[in-house]
Amino acid sequence: MELHQLRYFCAVAEAGSFSRAAEQSHVSQPSLSQQIMKLEDELGARLFDRLGRSVRLTETGQTFLPRARAVLRELEAARGDVAEQKDSVGGTVTIGVIPTVAPYFLPERLTWFSRRFPQVRLTVVEEITPVLLDQVRASKVDLAILALPVRGHEFETFPLLSERFFAALPAGHKFAKRRSLSLKDLRADPFLLLRDGHCFRDNAVAACDRARLHPQIIFESGQFSSLLSMVGAGMGVSIVPEMAIEKKSRCRFVRIEDAAAARTVGAVVLRGRSLSRAHHAFLAHLHDSPASRRS
Amino acid sequence: MELHQLRYFCAVAEAGSFSRAAEQSHVSQPSLSQQIMKLEDELGARLFDRLGRSVRLTETGQTFLPRARAVLRELEAARGDVAEQKDSVGGTVTIGVIPTVAPYFLPERLTWFSRRFPQVRLTVVEEITPVLLDQVRASKVDLAILALPVRGHEFETFPLLSERFFAALPAGHKFAKRRSLSLKDLRADPFLLLRDGHCFRDNAVAACDRARLHPQIIFESGQFSSLLSMVGAGMGVSIVPEMAIEKKSRCRFVRIEDAAAARTVGAVVLRGRSLSRAHHAFLAHLHDSPASRRS
DNA sequence: TACGATAGATAGGCCATGCCTATAGGTCGT
DNA sequence: ACGACCTATAGGCATGGCCTATCTATCGTA
To answer: Could you give the CA distance from residue A285 to residue A106 in angstroms, rounded to a whole number?
Structure first.
């Protein structure tokens, strides 16, 4: 049973004649007759009564007609669905983001994007890098925002912004008024750092390693705001990325000169995945959105 | 877009692999790949993400999958419908019957058939012969029961029974006790006959013509029972077919010897029409039903 | 890092089958 | 009885689906 057979069948049923149906279907009458006969053979039942002058549906044909139409209708619905989806920016975009980026980078971009494309449903998950990468691999998240670089050439990356690290110092710290400092300068200070697992902790530790600094870590937390309030209370110093600077906190922020004291935040997608228009739009907006001009 | 493409698409979606889908679909992997690609081309959208190890539906593919399945499901439903109808005696049979046969011949046969095939819905229309033949031509009635022969070789006829005509005489008529008579014997009697249009009137008049009898018609009616009660009242004589004899009436019925005083009742269908099993069953039962043994 | 294994894409040839034209057979109307 | 119309049949052509062989890329393993 083939689709063109169903189309021919419906055409004959509507036209009441093989010849006219053939004409309307843009095939020759014999071709159409053949296909109808083939269909009848396969079904094991006649669909039309060929009465000299006119052609009429048999009882079987009458029950078959609505079903054949249903098949063709479903087919058009399928085609239409795809076509519609193709030129509309809609659907769902699931974004993964690491905790050290999420609260600073995303909110304004999300609202900006949502205002621009209200038909797109946004979902955000906040996880540490290895979890996010697994979810990208499994297509559970479409796009992850995290610190570059990432290992594995199954990923495609798009750098979004680079930022330097800043030392967070208590107000009375001796370097609190400096415009910048070197990590070595903090050799004597106790450190407050993010908990293990956060990539920014690794970034910070790596930068210290480069500076031959082996900080004494007296406090670990999962979020910068905890660290900063402890620093503000004078417990020690910390390192934060530029986007995590809280002007209103009791800390002073001084730029760290070391070359390694910087990170690049970027988007990661699974290489080879086809991205919907919504995905592309979101990626583009990560660059374009007015919020990004702030950095 | 072709059905096998949809089948392949669903197979890949289920198997999660082109190779396995090809195996399950009993085609080679390149053939299947080709068809999927062709489908994607036609839709203008990728349906699968080919990621080295595995194959996953794109967003478009995900919306297309249920629609493709719906098409195939509808197709199976269509096929099943026809198959089911093929080996079941069901549906509707519409019977046409002339008034001079309807009340005598049909009732017992209808109930007998309905008891035997309760799934078949019977519809009966009572009309005079030319109307019935038109309706057979238009397939408004599937089968007509009327007096043979009929003109037109677009019809196929099945004789059911032959019956002789009887004279209906008042109880005191001089031939009332005879076993039989000739139409000529009624030369002096006033006649009561069916109204024009009824084929039995034509039968009766034709028989009279043959007998060189030109009866004086003093009453016409659309039904035998009216004629018979008038005859019973002594108004004149009438002619009725055997099946219309009412034993309980005040008339006497005497067989008419004339060769032309007989009719054949039969079934008529449109030549070339395919008859359902229900049609065939009904036709067969017109011969077989116990009621027919009465004649 | 290199290798074999696995999976999908590509190339090229074969053959089924759908389409065509021409024509036959049958019915209808004149 | 003839011409007009409609469907079925016959025979040839070509599109296109399927095949095998091969290529390429990725993955797991040595």
So the answer is: 11
For residue A91, what are its two tokens?
Answer: 């659907």
Could you check: is the Cβ of residue A24 within 7 Å of any atom of nucleic acid strand D? no
A82 closest CB neighbour out of B2, B45, B273: B45
Triad A181, A183, A186: Cα angle to 5°: 90
Distance CA B120, CA B122 (A): 6
Chain A contacts to B (CB-CB under 8 A): 1-3, 43-46, 49-52, 56, 58-60, 63-64, 67-68, 70-71, 74-75, 77-79, 81-83, 85-86, 91, 139, 154, 270-274, 276
Give residues 129-168 of chain A lying near strand D (Cβ < 7 A): 153-154
Structure tokens at B270: 């449109």
Tokens of B6: 């949809």
Name the nearest CA neighbour of A206 among A219, A190, A218, A193.
A193
Omega prior to A159 cis, within 30 of 0: no
Model pLDDT for residues A44-102, shown as the tens digit of each residue: 888 998 887 788 888 888 889 888 988 898 898 889 888 888 777 777 899 999 999 98
Q: Please tell me the distance from the alpha carbon of residue A283 to that of residue A113, in angstroms, as a whole number.
A: 10
d(CA B8, C1' C3) / Å: 34
DSSP state letters, B1-30: --HHHHHHHHHHHHHTSHHHHHHHHTS-HH
Q: How far apart are CA B55 and CA B12, in angstroms?
A: 8
Distance (Å, whole) CA A7 – CA A23: 13
Burial (CB count within 10 angstroms: exposed 0-12, middle 13-18, buried 19+), residue B23: middle
Indicate yes or no: strand D within 7 A of the C-beta of A182.
no
Find out whether B213 and B188 touch, Cβ atoms under 8 Å.
Answer: no
A123 vs B54, more confident: A123
Q: Can you give the C-alpha Rg of chain A in angstroms?
A: 33
DSSP string across B250-286: SEEEEEE--TTSEEEEEEEEETTPPPPHHHHHHHHHH
Cα B237 to Cα B129, B174, B217, B243, distances in angstroms: 25, 12, 10, 17
C-alpha A233/C-alpha A250 separation (Å) is 8
Q: Which residues pair with A161 in a beta bridge?
A: A265
Question: How far does chain B reach from its first CA to its final CA, in angstroms?
Answer: 63
In whole angstroms, give the CA distance from residue A125 to residue A143: 10
Q: Give the model confidence (pLDDT) of B65-99 as tens digits.
A: 888 988 888 898 889 888 888 777 777 899 999 99
Distance CA B93, CA B278 (A): 7
| Residue B280: band (very low, low, confident or very high) from pLDDT cuts 50, 70, 90 | confident
CA B129 – CA B95 distance, rounded (Å): 13
